[in-house]
Design brief:
seven-stranded parallel sheet, alpha/beta, 7 helices, single chain, Rossmann fold
Length: 223
């Protein structure tokens, strides 16, 4: 399939289902080649196979736990040709501090914080070597810190700090953006926003924290 991203390759994590899979399929519709990452072989391989069949683009499946640094390093090396990295990992429980058990807190942060942290570290290295690249972290957190959604509020604060902090030191040609759900997830709008950002990342300054509505709204609509 030919499209505006036919000459690009994107790495999408959490791509076996949910937002990650929808984002991968939306990118495939633009002609983008894909590296798709998931923790279980069969679901991610099936998702990649379906994309190859439906859109005629190259889609490679990769498995591993990105919260483990060795897995993240190996997958990033295998996906070193990706010019676009979209992080869609994380499923954060809602509730106040006393509502969330230790196991749930730790497991959710492995996917939502440590996995993207490891991959951002690795992909920045590859992108810096190439002198180009776009990183988009999907940040599933409330717009403002709230005590009854403390786990997502806290993880969101970490990811927002990563986006804003790293943007100050990135090599020329490498960009990082935070796509904030504000805990109001519409998978169709998010996948559209991701595609818009991949096609034209220069609309926003590196280090920007934006919403799906920001990304979808055309520049002339803001005039």
């Amino acid at each position: 399939m030919r499209g505006p991203l036919s000459n690009k390759t994107a790495l999408v994590t959490g791509a076996a289902g949910g937002i990650g899979l929808m984002a991968a399929r939306a990118l495939a519709q633009t002609g983008c080649s894909l590296h798709m990452v998931g923790q279980k072989f069969m679901p991610i391989e099936q998702a990649a196979s379906d994309i190859r069949s439906d859109f005629g683009v190259n889609a490679e499946a990769h498995t591993g736990n990105l919260a483990i640094s060795v897995d993240a390093e190996a997958i990033a090396m295998a996906c070193a040709d990706a010019e676009i990295y979209i992080n869609c990992t994380g499923n954060l429980p809602s509730g106040a501090l006393e509502d969330i058990e230790d196991e749930a807190w730790r497991k959710s942060w492995e996917a939502a914080v440590f996995a993207p942290l490891n991959m951002v570290r690795e992909m920045i290295g590859h992108m810096t070597d190439e002198g180009r690249g776009l990183i988009v972290l999907v940040i599933d957190a409330p717009a403002k810190t709230v005590s009854d959604d403390i786990c997502a509020s806290a993880s969101g604060a970490v990811l927002k700090t990563i986006v804003e902090g790293l943007s100050q030191d990135l090599a020329q040609g490498v960009r990082i953006l935070g796509l904030c759900t504000e805990r109001n997830i519409d998978a169709n709008r998010l996948s559209e926003a991701i595609t818009r950002l991949a096609i034209d990342p220069g609309r926003f300054a590196t280090g920007s924290l934006i919403t799906a509505q920001d990304a979808i709204t055309d520049d002339e609509d803001n005039a």
